[in-house]
Amino acid sequence: MTEADFESSLITSEHRRQYVDEGYFILERAICDEHLQILQDSCDHLIDVMHQEMDRLGTDHIHISHRGKRYHIAKQYQQAPRLSEYVFSILMADVCRATIGDAAYLFYDQYVAKAAEQGISFSWHQDSGYLGFFHRPYVTVWAAVDDMTIENGTASVLPFSKVGIRTIVEHVRDPDTGDKTGYFGSEPGVPAIVPAGSLVVFSSVTFHRSGANTTNRMRRAYVTQYSAEPICKPDSDEPMHLAVPFLRDGDIVS
Asked: Which band of pLDDT confidence, cut at 50, 70 and 90, is reported for residue 167?
């Protein structure tokens, strides 16, 4: 099934209300078969490219990616064949319109792949907490490239009503892992136990985390983030990450 076969009304008024009230919503099996295959193939391609770079450098790790353990591959959507078809798809346009409005820019993209019986957990954090300066909250779209379970370290979100926080808070960095943590309470959150092709959509001020992969299969997720305006470095016109125009007055321009 292609994107053209999908209805563009997957996002309901209830989803929109939940995003405002609780900071997230989940769409099961939202990605069409064609785009899901692109996501799977692109992840494999980019991991192969990273292995080639590791070989060239004579190392088994680049930044926080470690061969055969975990991979964080950021801002490489243009390096994988057809991946931009998903990044700038009708589905992503619908998500943006329902969350941040009729103007949207691609801010960031990243594959997070946790190898079989590998990959560490990530603590409760807000994506905005990693920027370290004030900005208008953006939207994160977490796509399940594989079936997601507790055992393979799926993502969990913490509803606004449970944590009582809707703004950016100061995070504490772990000197060993580099992770930042902004919530230290006991709320368990809502785990995304969903099939491949599902989306978890949440605000950049929504707390979320993920667990370790304890299964014998790799667990892959793809994250795209969209902002209503370019997010620039403090006191600068230089984009913090990306600032690729996507929507203008609700219409796709990319």
From this structure: confident
